[in-house]
Amino acid sequence: MLDNVESNAILDRLPAHLQQYIKPQNYDDYSPINHAVWRYVMRKNVDYLSKVAHESYLEGLKQTGISIDHIPNMYGMNRILKEIGWAAVAVDGFIPPAAFMEFQAFNVLVIASDIRQLEHIEYTPAPDIIHEGAGHAPIIANPEYAEYLRRFGEIGCKAISSARDYEIYEAIRHLSIIKEAEDTPQEEIEAAEKKVDKLQNETAELSEMAQIRNLHWWTVEYGLIGSIENPKIYGAGLLSSIGESAWCMTDKVKKIPYSIEACKQEFDITKPQPQLYITPDFAHLSLVLEEFANKMALRRGGLEGIKKLINSKNLGSIELSTGLQISGDFSKVIEHEGKPIYIQTSGKTALSHREKELVGHGVKNHPNGFGSPIGTLKGINLAIEDMSPRDLSAYGIYEGKKIELEFEGGINVAGEIITGTRNLQGKIILISLKNCKVTYNQEILFKPEWGNYDMAIGKEVISAFAGPADNLSFDLITHKTSSTTIKSKSTPEREELASLYASVRNIREGKNAKFSLDAALELLQKEHPKDWLLSVEIYELAVGKHEKLAKEALQNLELVKSRRPDIAHLIDGGVNLINSQLVKN
């Protein structure tokens, strides 16, 4: 996919399983109406946000090369973003949370390249280039926040999901697509909303991914910074919404000091948020993130971590105290006195050390699962991993020797040792045996006729996390979504309206135009009586220069307001902004 993207050193590091989500931006597909929507939102936002956004916002707009007048070109953004150590890629709407966070870990900003319709100019539940480009990009110019974002991605992509998480992701993605699409029947939207509500309101223990996704929402997307008395905006969802950026500053939105408790607060992407969290500074975000990470199976491992992986029904990994990592679909754990004493995967499994697959222990070598005891030998105080060569020889753990090992908890391994594998520190991490039988009480866990047996060495599980230890061990290029974003339909009426917008834009930029401002307004009044944004643009160009035309544009806007009272505030907002800037100049 990177063949179609102007790359840089950051993008070149992306693994193939992330590249599968990237799509070309197709900049020429943006219509003049799309550019007008961008311009209106950005002009309104910059005017308002200069008063209420974190100080990094306006400076970040300059540093990231984001124009107020034109939808940002991803290729141009990448040339500028690389100066602050980041890059940007275009994707199609929502992508799975783990992938989104992993992009962040690589210092890559994921931008949904579609743009909201004029009808949804204030807010859209679907991710779009206004949200991503005008919301996320400027704040990452702040080094402290950028590091928080990268670190969040690094930790977040290791969070263990549940089957329910993916079901919710698909339901929300579908809802965001049909709600943004034109002409979607109301009953279809209502059915999709009911499904999302039902899933989100089900009583279920929140997975690690669900909890860290909540933290992401209440910081990266909808975060406030400062004090409850004087909050400033830094969350991208607020920075990109002309409606919610004003709404969030009112007393109608509850303000709560940000803490790890936010991980339990779920959200609804289709509605304005009833409460928001305030961090005193960006450093506090990182403190809460580390506090949460300390509770994750990534750092705690143990029996609980293995059970999380089993319940996730997804590819995951554990790391043993020797550094040996086992990656696969975990299907079984035998426990004793609150500790795991045997683990089992099903299907393709790979063994790694320090995120690098061990030679001869990929999925081709372990296509049908992997099982191994964990822990210490019964009656022996010294763990196998801590034994010196002399100790190993004394206990008969030696190449070519037949041996029977009984582990604490009752796992028994009997066979002939073929060889052992050691790490760079000299610790033995794997022992291969032939003619091997593994039992637990009366249960047979491995039979000699199944082939050679590889026994992992480790007295405890120190980590459990989502995904493989070595990304190259598995074919991860399997992303298929149940739905794709729906593009606006092309009609003669829409093409004509776009032509009018293009003429007004060309006049503003000093280029040749198909229609004059007078002709554009006249045709707009006759053929497109519901449109309002172009009249605002015509008024902007005419006021102070062509007063008769400016007056006619205002009269037309009053007519539109009488027909469409629901968008009267948008018209007033645009006109008032023009008038205030006229006074300043």
Automatic annotation (TrEMBL):
Domain Biopterin-dependent aromatic amino acid hydroxylase family profile: 1-342
Keyword Coiled coil listed: yes
Sorted UniProt keywords: Coiled coil, Iron, Metal-binding, Monooxygenase, Oxidoreductase
Stretches assigned to coiled coil: 182-209
Record flagged with keyword Transport: no
Xref: InterPro entries: ArAA_hydroxylase (IPR001273), ArAA_hydroxylase_sf (IPR036951), Aro-AA_hydroxylase_C_sf (IPR036329), Aromatic-AA_hydroxylase_C (IPR019774)
Pfam families (alphabetical): Biopterin_H
Cofactor: Fe(2+)
PROSITE patterns: BH4_AAA_HYDROXYL_2
Family under the similarity heading: Belongs to the biopterin-dependent aromatic amino acid hydroxylase family.
The name this protein goes by in its record: Aromatic amino acid hydroxylase
